[in-house]
Amino acid sequence: MAEPEGDSTPPSNPRLRGLPPLDTAGATILVLGSFPSVRSLEKGEYYGHPRNHFWPLMAAIEDASEWHGEDNDFASSLRPPTEWEGRKALAARLGLSIWDLVDSCERRGSLDADIREAVVNDIPGFVASRPRIDSIALNGSLAAALFEFHFARGSRFATGPIGKAVNLELAGRLLVVRRLPSTSPVPTRRFRKAIDKLPCWMEACALP
Predict the structure, then answer these.
(1) What is the enclosing helix (H) or strand (E) of 58?
(2) Average pLDDT over the chain, rounded to whole?
(3) Residue 149 CA to its chain's centroid (Å)
(4) How many angstroms separate the CA atoms of 109 and 41, rounded?
(5) Is residue 172 very low, low, confident or very high in pLDDT (cuts 50, 70, 90)?
(6) Options 3.40.50.2300, 3.40.470.10, 3.30.200.20, 3.30.70.100; which CATH number does 16-205 get?
(7) pTM for the model
């Protein structure tokens, strides 16, 4: 059978653009992920996939009395806001702004491992113009690796202990930076469930 005519080169991955920052007035903590999932991009909302652990964790941090450490279906036992306006209000109450390391990239699907040709956001510029931000919470290993490569070269921060607070200079001042377990629902050996991630995230984002 004859080969069909035309270019047989496989199509490249689509070029995707990330979301603008959730720029909360008066925020003291900047949460940085890698790049939004397909569902989040479709909804135009951070952590928009219903199985992502981010918003259940934030609900638990805001009201620690609602959980008691049981190894149950923690992510489903809490009732974080489902609408974006309610989620933005929750972030504001916790003093969080939310953004991503990657501004645009090529990717098929939602896996971090499939990100190609990434262009990074101006994180130092964002921090410099918001003097109340004093800490950064990095959501997952790729976010930590990108942060180290672009803004903390040689610190070996990204391979350090998960959850450990490290003082790093950014935008002319020292910030407390933490590499945190990804809020993706995909389990890892150490962080199989949302409740396993809570201590690290609570230490980073708990109200004073």
Answers:
(1) helix 54-62
(2) 87
(3) 17
(4) 11
(5) very high
(6) 3.40.470.10
(7) 0.87
